[in-house]
Amino acid sequence: MNLIDTHCHINFDAYDADRDAVLQRSVEAGVQRIIIPAVDMSISRDICALVAGSEMLYGAVGVHPNSTADFHPDWLTELRELAVKPRIVAIGEIGLDYHWEDSPKHKQFEAFEAQLALAAQLELPVIIHNRESSADCLRILETWAKDLPPTLKSRSGVMHSFSGHQAVAERALAIGFYLGFSGPITYKNAEETRRIAAAVPLDRLLVETDGPYLTPVPYRGKRNEPAYIPYMVERIAALKSVTSEAIAEATTRNAEVLFQLA
After folding, report:
1. Does residue 174 contact residue 198 with C-beta atoms inside 8 Å?
2. Is the pTM of the predicted complex or chain greater than 0.85?
3. In angstroms, rounded to a whole number, what is the distance separating the alpha carbons of residues 201 and 178?
4. What is the CA radius of gyration of the chain?
5. Strand order in the sheet with 126-131
6. CB burial class (10 A; 0-12, 13-18, 19+) of residue 208?
7. What angle do CA 8, 166, 108 make, to 5 degrees?
8. Is there a contact between 215 and 224 (Cβ–Cβ < 8 Å)?
9. What range defines the domain where residue 165 resides?
10. In this structure, what CATH number is given to the domain that contains residue 72?
11. Could you give the number of structural domains in the chain?
């Protein structure tokens, strides 16, 4: 298979001891390309350096909502410079997070809206983190989507590790978003997520690990890694009553379109 892990923090220290081996297992499992999202300014810089000389890795730059407490508009100047570096394909991960209290809502809003505006200016898709914040997140995204350049209208971004309700999925799809599914689609208590995945059009599906987090069954409880992408592919294939090869082809094609991968 030729698969793409559209969201893995392979730069995190959880992989420091065996990163090369993790990447080798990824290739052996058919996962040929990996997109690494940023969570703050420092990591954005690190990702640019990590992907620059790679044939396998791509990156995104941006500030995660839990890193926005000290957000300043001046950060956008550097983000703009980083976003045009080689193999940077998106702004992300950005969004809102109401589960933790690492950043007040007004700072999350400020950072989210500023980075969305930057993405539109640079004609880059966005990788969205949405945790317990769907009402505000969708309201902001729907407003943003109205004025997108034509090049982004049908590939505005991805709702990463989707776990929202059906109405959230429908609203996201309506404004040109893809839905990314990760390990929880294999969990016992994720029936609603599976129902949504089964109903999502084939040309709007993505697969991801969110490694080192959200490890799928049968490895739940251990560190996640890109080599486990086939477990998500197989689960979605069963839900849609198609072959794993069909899901692999569709999700790879979708990632190539969304992120304009070579």
Report:
1. no
2. yes
3. 9
4. 17
5. 3-5, 31-36, 57-61, 88-97, 126-131, 157-159, 177-181, 205-207
6. buried
7. 55
8. yes
9. 3-259
10. 3.20.20.140
11. 1
Q: For 149-178, how does the pLDDT look when each residue is reduced to its tens digit (9 = 90+)?
A: 999 999 999 999 999 999 999 999 999 999
Residue count (the chain)? 262
User: Helix H segments across the chain?
Assistant: 19-28, 41-52, 75-83, 105-122, 134-145, 166-174, 191-199, 229-240, 244-259
At residue 128, the 3 state secondary structure works out as: strand
Model confidence over 100-136: pLDDT tens digits? 989 999 999 999 999 999 999 999 999 999 999 999 9
Question: Residue 231 has which token pair?
Answer: 């477990």
How many CA atoms, within 13 angstroms, populate the side-chain half-sphere of residue 12? 17
Cα–Cα distance measured from residue 62 to residue 99, given in angstroms and rounded to the nearest whole number:
20
Alpha carbon 232 to chain centroid, angstroms: 15
